[in-house]
Amino acid sequence: MSHEIRTPLQNIVGLSELMLRDATGPAQKKRAESLCATADHMMSVVNDILELSRIEANRVVLEHRDFSLAEALDSAVAVIRSRRARRGSASTSRFRRASRPGLAG
């Protein structure tokens, strides 16, 4: 079921981002921004529903492994910055580096 929902929705997300990039006037840009935000929200809802379905079906496997919190945060911020940059807006972030470089979880 996930591909049947995600694939067309991903196309909508991509096309809305292209519309925003190619918007020529303020009204067009505002509509494209609204469409992008709505498409992203729909994708988030679909992903949450699919994740709940996996949890209910006991198909989620939790791993216990070492990781770097700083790297995880940097990766998350990079994704957000990339999306914001495609839409012509900026974002900032500040994190104080932990004294412990690695965590387990």
Task: Please provide a written account of the structure.
This protein has 105 residues and is mainly alpha-helical. The protein folds into two domains: 1-61; 62-105, no CATH class. 67% of the residues lie in helices and 4% in strands. It has three helices and two strands; from the N terminus they run ααβαβ. The protein has helices at residues 2-22, 26-56, 69-86; strands spanning 66-67, 103-104. The chain has a two-stranded antiparallel ribbon with strand order 1-2. The two termini are 30 Å apart.
Distance between the termini: 30 Å
Oligomer: single chain
Number of domains: 2
Q: Give me the count of strands.
A: 2
**Strand arrangement in the largest pleated sheet:** 1-2
Q: What radius of gyration results from the CA coordinates?
A: 18 Å
What kind of sheet is the major sheet? 2 strands, antiparallel
Q: Which descriptor suits the 3D outline? A: flat
> Which class best fits the helix and strand makeup?
mainly alpha
Low-confidence stretches: none
Number of helices: 3
Helix content: 55-70%
What pattern of helices and strands is seen along the backbone?
Answer: HHEHE
| Strand composition percent | under 5%
Determine the mean pLDDT. 85
Task: Give a summary of the structure in a few sentences.
This protein has 105 residues and is mainly α.
Write out key terms for the chains shown.
flat, 105 residues, mainly alpha, 3 helices, two-stranded antiparallel sheet, 2 domains, single chain, 67% helix, 4% strand
